[in-house]
Amino acid sequence: MAALWKLPVIYVCENNLYGEYTSCGETIAxxxxxxxxxxxxxxxxxxxxxxxxxxxxxxxxxxRARRGEGPAFLECKTYRYYGHHVGxxxxxxxxxxxxxxxxxxxxxxxxxxxxxxxxxxxxxxVIERITADVKAEIDNGVQYALAAAYPEPDEVDQxxxx
Length: 162
Hints:
It is extended and about 50 Å long. Strands 1-5-4 form a three-stranded parallel beta sheet. It has a two-stranded antiparallel sheet with strand order 2-3. The chain folds into two domains: 1-95, no CATH class; 107-148. By secondary structure, the chain is an alpha/beta fold. The chain is 41% helix and 14% strand.
């Protein structure tokens, strides 16, 4: 319907290379972009680990949608660092070396920070301060949640149904 009615919709597929416990290479025939293109939807793929590339592409797609050129589909190729859920701790479907490489060589925050400091746009001390501030905010949030009282049993369905 979005293609038929030229709706200003942007679909984003976060392709993290795995469908639960299986590599997408073993479960998906053809290209993901071909699915959108089959419906006449403009489709692109980007490195989802590169913040600046994702931002620039999304900005262009938003402008396109605002011009009335119809829907778009954006595949962001990224990586899921940890398990699919809390019980997925062994992750036997991929190697620890693969995980380490993605965490060290393709981390979006480290890549952006490196680029900004190399280009002289920000001092490394600013990145360090931001990192420390965010860590402190997260730690404070965790402590707040752990210390919070449990909700009353009659609140279990509060704000669940409209």
